[in-house]
Design goal:
The chain is α/β, with parallel strands linked by helices. The chain has six helices and four strands. The chain has a four-stranded parallel sheet, sandwiched between helices.
Amino acid sequence: MLIQESHVDVPTTAGGSGSMLTGPVSRFARQIASQGYICAAPSTYHEFHDSTPLAYDGPGTDAGNAWKIAKKLTAYDEDARLSVDTLVSLPTCNGRIGATGMCLGGHLAYRCALDERVSAAVCYFATDVHAHSLGEGKKDDSLQRAGDIKGELVMIFGKKDNHVPPEGRDLIRKTLHEAGVEFSFYEIAGAQHAFIRDELSKGRYDAAVSGTCFEMLRELFGRVLRSELGPRVGGDGKVEDVC
């Protein structure tokens, strides 16, 4: 499928006019759009930076990490809300919204799912969720608000992800279970943090595993966002004990 790209400048409380998208994020968005979706890729650090993409090197990583905890949590949520507002305002939108992202974007996709308009979210190696450390003050409420999630989640991590250690992944899984969230949880053997980022500066990219994970996204988005199956039913029913 051929795709088109355009830019929309959406005013925010925090201000700024940056539209920075790194190469891996741009290619990921195009991959999703080529499946027939309208894909919005908001610039996370628009209040701090211009449209020049940060490099995946020491200085770029340091800048991103600094801005990640300088930005207010309310500003992250406003960006998500305005992105959804923009999508649902389009005449070609069917009203069903999905979210996805990698690393910080994985956490932001999770927080996007706190909006009841979001029906599905695929969160790749979402950082800081287990540590409650997103945003200014490093004290987010993402896990505390798990019960606000009404859509279906897919959480994906590498078994060797040292940004979200095993005990952190266990906490996320346990919290989602206890909150009654409909979710799938995958830990990929041998995969490190950021294994879908298709550049080699840090030696983590795994194209084969990335392809498998994209099929998980296609399944969830296809079933929830594109099909006409209607609302999910039967989730609380008793499972028959048969082989």
